[in-house]
Amino acid sequence: MKINQFRRQVLTQPHSAVLIFSDINIRYLSNFSGHAATVLITEKTNYLITDYRYFEQAKEQAGHEQKRFTVICRDRANQTLAELIVELLNQESCQTLFFESEHINVANWQTMSAQIEQQTQVKQTTALVGTVEKLRMIKTADEIASIKQAAAIGDQALANILPLVKAGITERELAIELDYQMATLGSEELSFATILGFGERSALPHGIPSNRKLKQGDLILIDFGAVVNGYRSDMTRTFVFGKADAKQKQIYQLVQDAQQAAIDKLTEGVSGQTLYEQSANILLNSDYKGHAGEGLGHGVGLQLHEQPFLGPDCKTTIEQGCVITIEPGIYIPGWGGIRIEDDVVLTENGLEIITQAPKALQEL
């Protein structure tokens, strides 16, 4: 179980406990998908603290026997979160406390830590940075299955909107239809706000769909994803409306070669830096080296952007169960951009590409 693995890593000292504040990390450890929650894990008990708005949901998702969380409904009118945590720390005789420093603001922690210091036996508080996030890098079979389902929704939704690509349609109209198709096919929400740009606006790596109308010869860049059981997909495809010209074909092939170079190198134990270099060596030795996007990709799961972040300084190695994106791109202001992105996973049988939409240059 994920919670047991986390316990073994963190609760190595007697009378220790840990506070988890991140909604995403709480979901990962407990299966609770709501908000307004805090988790306190002690040597004896896993506590999930929430309020009346999420109490029943928390009991259903995290309070069952398999998850082994004691769910507490805090009376917000009569007890602060700090007061309840102090009560639990004293009840458990805790002396060492770890806390997620990246997921609580300074003012709240100063208030809480002052009460802990004055009213409990806790002698030491230690920041916990990136521990759950590191565990989240390696996905279970169920997590990978959810990402595959999300990717399949994305694949089908994209196929469904391509017949709508006509002269005069706006970026916004096409993006709305794509979002609708994903919802209809079962996506819980958007993985992120859909990125969609025509022509020169495709050079905006995170361009917000506008009222720009599609014209003959335009590049069409679409970056989007679906969500299943909280797990996200992330895919980019680039098309040409009409006949592709020589420059469009050349750059598309360049980006495709750069992506394939990284995919070909993706084996267990390879570093994110090495994958980046395989792709960058192609882009940075081309005529368009000044327009290559930074980085190569990132982990994806309960969050769109997770560890590892593939780039020139990424020493993290890719292991079995790691789901990452491979997404090189060329972005030329005033002309347009081309990006190809896939979700991939390393399994015991080797590399598997999760996103299945065709990657050959399509002229629509």
UniProtKB/TrEMBL annotation:
Q: Which domain of life is it from?
A: Bacteria
- What SUPFAM superfamilies does the record point to? Creatinase/aminopeptidase, Creatinase/prolidase N-terminal domain
| Gene3D superfamilies per record | Creatinase/methionine aminopeptidase superfamily, Creatinase/prolidase N-terminal domain
Give start and end of each Peptidase M24 domain: 146-348
Pinpoint the Creatinase N-terminal domain residues. Answer: 4-138
| A Pfam family annotated for this UniProt entry | Creatinase_N
InterPro entries, sorted: Creatin/AminoP/Spt16_N, Creatinase/aminopeptidase-like, Creatinase_N, Pept_M24, Pept_M24_MAP, Peptidase_M24B
Q: What is this protein called?
A: Xaa-Pro peptidase family protein
